[in-house]
């Protein structure tokens, strides 16, 4: 036993030497553009609360009301006695919102993908996965036992070559709708066309598109005006929706199959119903107010214009995820520190979260930011860019 601990201590020390050890910071108080981290206040560009709803009074009031009605815990898994009427209503509303026949609620996006993929494919089948897909699509595919084929990022031609020579009975193309570290949008119309041509399913993980893209934030499918029984749409509820959780929407029979067989749905305690209460308030806000998405678009354009002449590569992105690729791990950390010294928090993202040689600052914008706050970030980065690191 001590050998094992010594081994792990050495591994941790190596991570420390490589400056790859991850650090947690404590947040005091609610989420928002001004964030108190480890006791100090920063102007923050690090959250996925893209619409600024995580601390919205309507969501808080709805959570309070649901808390009074349902109590704190769900007490059992959904198939035993934990499926609250608030979650039932949420599933119905979510399905209607994204224009799909039926939806199933999961505790988190991670758990959703870990449940959906093994429920649909297994040994002998194939999952085709974009190289930049989120870890939970990769982990779900691995867990399924299906063959796992990675295609280069958004490379539809290469994917077609892989599909053309594949003879699996079931084929599933899995993609992020909006890529979490690059911010670009998947070529969903082309991917769906390939699904039709090669008789495959399309699983879209829209963690970063739900609430942001498409009319009223209905997501990346709505952004392209797509609908098909071949599509399973996974949206998460802890980012733009401001709360926590996830759902998958699609053909009613497929959703019934997931309810019956997705292990991360069946074998876990249902989420606290108060979360569903808050999420119903989110859906109401999304359908009655779309100024947040418009304001966000203006902030994105302002930031991109302000960063256009920096010596680093700002990846193409029309979403609130804006990646400034500086390539070198140490430079990414130095810039993060430089911003921090100026009271601004932007996370540096390094391998293995992103491919080697693409270390970056991941700037995430929120409708809760003001134009002045965007200018503050632009000015700080301009200042740092002439320091010749
Ligand atoms: N998919 C993507 C693309 C994500 O970025 C994330 C979260 N970072 C998830 C899924 C997981 O969602 P959750 O946080 O609800 O587990």
UniProtKB/TrEMBL annotation:
Its cofactor is pyridoxal 5'-phosphate. It is an enzyme of class 2 (transferase). HAMAP family: BioF_aminotrans_2. SUPFAM superfamilies: PLP-dependent transferases (SSF53383). Belongs to the class-II pyridoxal-phosphate-dependent aminotransferase family. BioF subfamily. It comes from the Bacteria. Substrate binds at residues 22, 134, 353. Keywords: Acyltransferase, Biotin biosynthesis, Pyridoxal phosphate, Transferase. This is 8-amino-7-oxononanoate synthase. The gene is bioF. The modification N6-(pyridoxal phosphate)lysine is found at residue 239. InterPro entries: Aminotransferase_I/II_large, AON_synthase_class-II, AONS_Archaea/Proteobacteria, AONS_Proteobacteria, PyrdxlP-dep_Trfase, PyrdxlP-dep_Trfase_major, PyrdxlP-dep_Trfase_small. Pyridoxal 5'-phosphate binds at residues 109-110, 180, 208, 236. Pathway: Cofactor biosynthesis; biotin biosynthesis.
